[in-house]
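Quick log. Single chain, no ligands specified.
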Amino acid sequence: MLGLDALMTTVLKTCYTRNDISRRLRLLRDYLEQNYFTENRMDMTKFLVMRRATTDDIDAFIGWGDDFFKSFTRKTAYALIDNMTEKVKTLQVASLYIPYEPVPAEINKIGSWFRGNIGPTVILDIHADPTLLGGCAVVWKGTYRDYSLRYYMLKKRQEIVRVIEEYVSSFYKVAN
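-> predicted structure:
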């Protein structure tokens, strides 16, 4: 039987975003309710398919392993899920703004980078912002940092205008 911290560590290995953690904890609660409090016991994969879980959700549940699920009993299921949900609220969140909606494989790469470079339990709150053009913006511990192409182009606007004017000017000199 795994304790709360071990359960959270297991979940965090497969969840990098606030949305993923919330969705998977809801699915976990529903799955445990289905098996502990109804007459319709159901295989985990069948349950997840019926609930239209993503393949990433199904892979995460399978990856959590038997010891994870054996840690929940009819008596402890609600308390453990509630405690896990409360623990998620205490995790540090990095808000990431990128110019597109990332696919799950990209979220995993980005999440792994944040966990390796920022903190082992940081979770992401990812937002698509097409105005960024390229790069990203990050909010971490209340500080906004813009690493987008748009930001650097605005920062260097006068230099860019000067270079373009020089090019146009030289182009007209050659043409005349």
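Residues 18-37 form the longest helix (20 residues).
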